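Tutorial handout. Part one gives the primary structure; part two gives the three-dimensional structure as tokens.
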Amino acid sequence: MHRTGKTRPKPRIVFGKPIGQYQAIAHPLADAYIKLEAADLMRYRAAWLYYNNKPCGAEANMAKYLAAEACMHACDRALQTHGGYGFSVEMDIERYWREARLHLLAPISQEMILNHIAQDRLNLPKSY
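Part two.
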């Protein structure tokens, strides 16, 4: 059973092989996984700094930035992999994609994070 209580679909078979066996599918999914893991590491770094009473604003912003980008990328790859079927309600992919898109905007936009990093870490003048 899927976490939503629905039965998980069987692995997609294309030309007699599981779709994940094709590099055109496997490589983008592996790339998405790597980006998610990198975002997770930045999250741990920000948390470590916070719990050790060290400045962590830039790291927290970088973690949010990387997580939002990685999440959007992963959802987009999943949607692309499943094609039109990815938009069906049974797959949950379209909902994940919509929710991932929201994280690029809220609670702070990616552009505002870039402004903060440029100012705080690169010592560039305020641009807004």
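Part three, for discussion. The CA atoms of residues 39 and 66 lie 5 Å apart. The two ends are 49 Å apart (CA to CA).
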